[in-house]
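Homework-ish question, so no full write-ups if that breaks the rules, but can someone show me the predicted structure for this set?
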Amino acid sequence: MQSQKKYKRIVVKIGSSLFSSKGRKLDTALVHDIAKQISALVKRGNEVVVVSSGAIALGMSILKLINRPKHLKDLQAAAAIGQHELMHVYKLALKKFNLNCAQLLLTWDDFLGLRYHNAKNTLNTLLKLKCVPVINENDSVSTEEIKVGDNDRLSAMVANLVDADLLIILSDVDGLLDRDQKVIRRVDKITGEIKALASPTRKSACVGGMVTKIEAARIAVEDRIPCVIANGGKKGIIIKVAKDPLSEGTIFLPK
Ligand code: GLU
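A: Not a homework solution, just the prediction itself:
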């Protein structure tokens, strides 16, 4: 109960890799499980904001594309096709637990000036309504110059925007692995050595996004928000981490 209060407002980032299991099909069982965990947390008084990837992956699957498009306009179109499908999936899954969801599509310049405050007010109001905001980057209108670029960083910026108590980044890896492939449980300082463990040249299960996850953790801890990187495929993982952020994956602690 103590930690429920301490980590009341939680941002959960869900990566595309979790959505498409074997055969590039949407893993509906996993989405159902995520919705179940969110509803259990909301019932206990937590506030949960989801940052979810998957628009481009779902768009590609609807368009029956095997390879990720190379041109920006094709990626933007795939995102536009996939985004509402993504929301449909969340809507159906959360509805089963009597929860409403809301969509916010943000990009870099929404974190500046008046738009930052507008987004903040909207999110606070949605949370008061016990609604689950589901956020993605506004890929269909974002270009290189104005893009956050990846949802790991976006989730850290959202955690700052809503003054979250905890950021949970869910992926298909167990956390940050050391050189012996063991999960590092706790990081008190993001040193060069820690960054090197995420290097894309390193052959390990956690390559593929670990660089941006560590960057997201850096942004979060600078804002005094602890960040946990954990395996979203594990049953009950969100609840477990929300109760005790030291229990699973890798935790990055603020100074
Ligand atoms: N916004 C992208 C999408 O929904 C994903 C970006 C990311 O996974 O970092 O497809």
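Now go work out the reasoning yourself. Hint: The first strand starts at residue 9 and ends at 14.
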